[in-house]
Backbone:
C-alpha cells in the first residue's frame, strides 16, 4: 500500500520544535493556537510564536482550538480566528475533550457551531477532534458529519493500522488518526524534533498527495442536525428510565404536555424506545410527535 502522510500535533507542552533535528518524516503538523480555561478565560497557546518558527517549515500546517464549556462558543471562535489570521495555516480543528470541561449535549452543539462558524469565515477544512468515549457519549449528537480527527491508541503502536471507530462512523470514515502519545508511546519526541519527552503522532487517511488534494477541495460545512421534538400525551405523565426497557430504574418523571428533544430510537423489549437529549429513555407509544426543526443557534 502507498504510505500514509505522517504528522505530529504540538502545543506548549512540547517545549520546542526544530524540524531540522527530526530523524522521522513529518509530512504535516497541527499546532494548538488557542484554549479556553475553566475560569472562563480564553487565551492563545503561550508558546505559539516560538513553536511556529519550526511549524512554518513544514509543508502542510494546521491549527486547533481547545474548546471550553465555560465560555461562549462564538467568543472562542472569534478569538481563534483573530489569532490564526496572523499565521499561515491550511486547515483547522476543534479540540473536544473532557479535561476541565462539563461534558453534555450542549457542549457537542457548541463544538458544531464553532466548526460551522470557522469553516464559513475561512473557507478552509475544519476537523472535529475527540476520542471514542467522548464521541460515543456526546460528540456524535451534533458533530457526526464533520471530518474526524480521532484519538485511539493501540497497546502496541504501529504505523498504517486502522482505528477502531465509534458509532455513526463506518470503516475508513476518518481523516486524521492520532495513534500515539505519551499514553502508549513514550520517549519518541526527539525523533520528531520536539523538546519534550513524548509527542502525539498522527496518520492522514491517504498519501501526502491525497492530503494536499483533500485540503484544496473545500466543501461547505454540514448542515445543522435535525432534532425531533416530542410531547408527552400520557396523563398524568411519563417515566423516563435509565435504559431501553421497563426493568430499568426510573431516572425522572415528565408531566403530561411536557415537550422534549429526542436524539435516537431503539427497538428493544417489545417497544420502540426514544433516547432523550437530556438523558434517559421512554416508550414511543406514550408520546406524540410534535414537530421537527433545525437547531441553528
Residues:
Amino acid at each position: 500500500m502507498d504510505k500514509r502522510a505522517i504528522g505530529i500535533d504540538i502545543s506548549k507542552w512540547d517545549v520546542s520544535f526544530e524540524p531540522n533535528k527530526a530523524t522521522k518524516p513529518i509530512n504535516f503538523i497541527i499546532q494548538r493556537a488557542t484554549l479556553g480555561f475553566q475560569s472562563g478565560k480564553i487565551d492563545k497557546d503561550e508558546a505559539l510564536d516560538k513553536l511556529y518558527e519550526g511549524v512554518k517549515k513544514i509543508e502542510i500546517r494546521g491549527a486547533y482550538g481547545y474548546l471550553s464549556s465555560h465560555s461562549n462558543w462564538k467568543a472562542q471562535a472569534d478569538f481563534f480566528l483573530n489569532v490564526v489570521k496572523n499565521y499561515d495555516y491550511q486547515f483547522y480543528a476543534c479540540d473536544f475533550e473532557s479535561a476541565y470541561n462539563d461534558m453534555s449535549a450542549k457542549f457537542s452543539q457548541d463544538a458544531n457551531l464553532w466548526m460551522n462558524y470557522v469553516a464559513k469565515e475561512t473557507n478552509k477544512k475544519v476537523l472535529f477532534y475527540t476520542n471514542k468515549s467522548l464521541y460515543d457519549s456526546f460528540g456524535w449528537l451534533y458533530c457526526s458529519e464533520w471530518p474526524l480527527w480521532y484519538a485511539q491508541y493501540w497497546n502496541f503502536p504501529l504505523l498504517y493500522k486502522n482505528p477502531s471507530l465509534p458509532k455513526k462512523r463506518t470503516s475508513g470514515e476518518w481523516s486524521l488518526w492520532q495513534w500515539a502519545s505519551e499514553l502508549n508511546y513514550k520517549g519518541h519526541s526527539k525523533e520528531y524534533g520536539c523538546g519534550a519527552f513524548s509527542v502525539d503522532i498522527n496518520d492522514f487517511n491517504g498519501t501526502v498527495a491525497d492530503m494536499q488534494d483533500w485540503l484544496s477541495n473545500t466543501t461547505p460545512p454540514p448542515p445543522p442536525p435535525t432534532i425531533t421534538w416530542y410531547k408527552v400525551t400520557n396523563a398524568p405523565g411519563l417515566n423516563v428510565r435509565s435504559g431501553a426497557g421497563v426493568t430499568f430504574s426510573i431516572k425522572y418523571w415528565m408531566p403530561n404536555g411536557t415537550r422534549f428533544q429526542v436524539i435516537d430510537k431503539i427497538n428493544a423489549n417489545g417497544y420502540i424506545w426514544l433516547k432523550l437529549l437530556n438523558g434517559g429513555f421512554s416508550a414511543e407509544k406514550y408520546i406524540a410527535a410534535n414537530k421537527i426543526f433545525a437547531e441553528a443557534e
User: Anything to note?
Assistant: The chain has a mean pLDDT of 90. Residues 6-216 form a domain with the TIM Barrel fold (CATH 3.20.20.80). The chain is about 20% helix and 30% strand. Residues 105-122 form the longest helix (18 residues).
